[in-house]
């Protein structure tokens, strides 16, 4: 019995040491004027998903000076290995990696299947969707508009530039182009816009059909597919525009 108690005591001590070590894996950072989560992550040599894992933000797009952000100490979290699976090496993916990501990502597989079977798309709209899907998983990069990384309007700019259409590098400016489209009449290739910070349009994605859109997400740190009909983006949807093509 004494040995059992001793072992139990050692186990409890070991557990408390683990908890203490975990508690020491973050440092506090006070948000300053002009900060964004992406900029803070970059400053500390982190990827945005690593920062989001240790912070419980109600709206990751909306931080203000004086807010506290917990910074994981680099190298102290084993979860960093998990996040590396969505980070393309040198900003590119081989065809084998793309196939692997597709198998792990049901939304990507479903979207690509729908794309192949949708004979009603115009050649340009089909090309827009094909190009957009190439970049699933690419990293979010503030100000980025190339295959090395994108912000939201940079992603739309790059995809449309690839089919010969010029767009400005601004979500609010893009929302003034083309013609307005009612939500009930969205077609693949339409640009969809959101308010994620205040009253101004601040985010854009490309509609791909079936209530989904593809976009460069600063909150998730990569190009991904999300739903228009549920959750965060349903509440923040503003309008859609059809770009002449």
Task: Give the topology, please.
Elements: H1 2-23, E1 26-30, H2 37-43, H3 48-53, E2 68-72, H4 80-83, H5 95-104, H6 106-117, H7 123-134, E3 145-146, E4 149-150, H8 152-161, H9 171-174, E5 179-180, E6 191-194, E7 203-209, E8 212-217, E9 222-227, H10 231-236, E10 237-242
Antiparallel strand pairs: 1-2, 3-4, 5-10, 6-7, 6-10, 7-8, 8-9
Helix content: 25-40%
Number of strands: 10
Order of helices and strands: HEHHEHHHHEEHHEEEEEHE
Class derived from helix and strand content: alpha+beta
Strand order of the largest sheet: 5-10-6-7-8-9
Q: Radius of gyration, rounded?
A: 21 Å
What global shape is seen?
elongated
Beta fraction of the residues? 15-25%
H/I helix tally = 10
Distance between the termini: 80 Å
Major β-sheet annotation = 6 strands, antiparallel
Low-confidence residue ranges: 13-24, 76-104
**Average of pLDDT:** 77
Tag the structure with descriptive keywords.
245 residues; alpha+beta; six-stranded antiparallel beta sheet; 10 helices; 18% strand
Report on the structure:
The chain has 245 residues and is an alpha+beta fold. Helices cover 38% and strands 18% of the residues. It has ten helices and ten strands. It has helices spanning 2-23, 37-43, 48-53, 80-83, 95-104, 106-117, 123-134, 152-161, 171-174, 231-236; strands at residues 26-30, 68-72, 145-146, 149-150, 179-180, 191-194, 203-209, 212-217, 222-227, 237-242. The strands form three sheets. Strands 5-10-6-7-8-9 form a six-stranded antiparallel beta sheet. The chain has a two-stranded antiparallel ribbon with strand order 1-2. A hairpin with a 4-residue loop joins strand 8 (212-217) and strand 9. Helix 5 packs across helix 6 (106-117) and helix 7 (123-134) packs across helix 8 (152-161). The protein is elongated, with a radius of gyration of 21 Å. The N and C termini lie far apart (80 Å). The relative contact order is 0.13. The model is unreliable at 13-24 and 76-104 (pLDDT under 50).
């Amino acid at each position: 019995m004494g040995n059992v108690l001793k072992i139990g005591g050692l186990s409890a001590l070991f557990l408390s040491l683990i908890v203490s070590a975990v508690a020491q894996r973050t440092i506090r950072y006070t948000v300053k004027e002009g900060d964004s989560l992406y900029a803070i992550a970059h400053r500390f040599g982190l990827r945005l998903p690593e920062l989001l894992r240790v912070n419980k933000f109600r709206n990751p797009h909306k931080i203000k000076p004086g807010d506290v952000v917990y910074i994981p100490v680099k190298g102290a979290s084993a979860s960093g290995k998990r996040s590396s699976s969505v980070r393309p090496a040198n900003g590119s993916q081989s065809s084998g990696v793309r196939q692997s990501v597709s198998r792990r990502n049901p939304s990507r597989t479903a979207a690509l299947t729908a794309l192949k079977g949708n004979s009603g798309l115009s050649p340009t709209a089909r090309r827009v969707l094909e190009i957009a899907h190439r970049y699933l998983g690419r990293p979010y990069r503030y100000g980025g508009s190339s295959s090395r990384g994108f912000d939201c309007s940079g992603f739309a700019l790059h995809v449309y530039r690839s089919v010969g259409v010029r767009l400005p590098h601004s979500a609010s400016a893009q929302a003034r182009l083309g013609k307005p489209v009612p939500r009930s009449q969205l077609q693949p290739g339409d640009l969809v816009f959101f308010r994620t910070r205040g009253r101004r349009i601040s985010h854009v994605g490309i509609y791909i059909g079936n209530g989904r859109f593809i976009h460069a997400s600063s909150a998730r740190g990569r190009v991904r597919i999300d739903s228009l009909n549920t959750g965060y983006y349903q509440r923040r949807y503003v309008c859609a525009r059809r770009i002449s093509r």
